[in-house]
Amino acid sequence: MSNANLRAHLITFGCQMNEYDTHLVQSELASLGAEFVDTIQDANFVLVNTCAVRGKPVEKVKSLLGKLRKEKERRPLLVGMMGCVAQLEEGQEIAKKFDVDILLGPGAITQIAKALESHDKFWDLTFRDEVNTYVPPPPKGTLSAFVSIIRGCNHHCTYCIVPKTRGPEVSRHPDLILEEIERLKAAGVLEVTLLGQNVNSYGKDQPGYPSFAELLRMVGQIGIPRIKFTTSHPVNFTDDIIQAIAETPQVCRYIHLPVQSGSNRVLRRMGREYRREWYLDRVRAIKEALPDVVLSTDIIVGFPGETEADFEETLTLYDEVGYDHAYMFIYSPRPGTPSARHFQDLPREVKVARLQRLIEKQKEWSYRKNKRWEGRVVEVLVRGTAKEDGYAEGHDRGNHPVLVPAAQAPEPGLYQVEIKQATPHLLYGEVVGSTAPTTIPLTVM
Ligand code: 5AD
Ligand code: SF4
């Protein structure tokens, strides 16, 4: 197929790194002259970016590919699969079964142009340097963007498929990161989220690179008003990082720190290298240095062998930390991971009942935490109109969704908003004073 006639439709499952990778491929396709269409029906090329972290997203990919195979029987259609599922044996079997034409592992996505030139099926699962040296152009029509700083993961959590799909940690050269952020700033982007499976390890794999703490300070100097980062690992969340956040006003006081479980017995079986006491000490240090910090976490319920007493330790840890938000998952055995090979999965009813109890806890805490913003003025990055009639939506520096009357925020941008009412899920506010974008003084190093 000639690239000039390419009508591409891109579908993304999974995490923010996948969203970033889709954008990377999309910009490559744009440079090849592709047009982007909103539906499968209008497309002659459908590319699916896949997630393997739990069983559910893999099932979704399979049913989508089934649909695409049927479509292929009716008309010429090129189907591509990229991302974490593509890297797995399971994914390659899926690709064969559903007649996928292009298969690109997470380290091979820069090969998209070559793949399209190929007259045959094109599979590439190697990890290529280009994936870290490519600097995608700023995404259009958004004030908030992602920047990859490190790929892969060196931890060995027994439940996790990611080390298999994304390989060991490889940090990106700091000059490229800074160049990408400079370009985003020039394009008017107001918020950058630094991405990696474990951003705290940044630089450790490459001699001469700055540490994550040093990188945060360097990125702060660029002067984008909001810097966020995800995901962190408690073991690598060292004091120098906390200090860098405290001393760099552009870095938002929002930290996502996955705990996974509150029980030491479970943490050990999960292969998490810290214990409850270590985690709570990190939280203590964070709260001490960053008053008003917003904390979120990931928790897996129903890990094999988790007893009622273990689960209750997760509930008490939740109370000790008092998270603003949590992403909660039912344990899903992933083929080939140590926990799936060696441990017996718990009955589904047990896992579901625990998840429900945890969700109750999360709602209570989120409501309580959200309430503390009532009457205070926060900075909101308004994206556009909300689903709720008459409102514009955005989020504050702590990642809370915030709704304001649409008439008060006619343009996307930064607004000072007084919070009038909190719910467990979001904050309602009114724009106060000037609606001019907030500027934050640069730190002097
Ligand atoms: N089952 C359930 N949840 C998982 N996660 C990772 N692997 C699994 C699994 N096998 C969760 C973890 C991780 C988040 C991205 O997904 O909580 O932090
Ligand atoms: Fe899913 Fe993890 Fe891959 Fe992201 S890195 S797409 S969460 S498996």
Automatic annotation (TrEMBL):
Pfam families: Radical_SAM (PF04055), UPF0004 (PF00919). GO terms for molecular function: 4 iron, 4 sulfur cluster binding; metal ion binding; tRNA-2-methylthio-N(6)-dimethylallyladenosine(37) synthase activity. InterPro entries: Elp3/MiaA/NifB-like_rSAM, Methylthiotransferase, Methylthiotransferase_CS, Methylthiotransferase_N, Methylthiotransferase_N_sf, MiaB_methiolase, rSAM, rSAM_horseshoe. It catalyses: N(6)-dimethylallyladenosine(37) in tRNA + (sulfur carrier)-SH + AH2 + 2 S-adenosyl-L-methionine = 2-methylsulfanyl-N(6)-dimethylallyladenosine(37) in tRNA + (sulfur carrier)-H + 5'-deoxyadenosine + L-methionine + A + S-adenosyl-L-homocysteine + 2 H(+). It is an enzyme of class 2 (transferase). PROSITE patterns: MTTASE_N, MTTASE_RADICAL, RADICAL_SAM, TRAM. Transmembrane segments: none annotated. Residues 6-121 form the MTTase N-terminal domain. [4Fe-4S] cluster 2 binds at residues 153, 157, 160. This is tRNA-2-methylthio-N(6)-dimethylallyladenosine synthase. It comes from the Bacteria. It comes from Marinithermus hydrothermalis (strain DSM 14884 / JCM 11576 / T1). Its cofactor is [4Fe-4S] cluster.
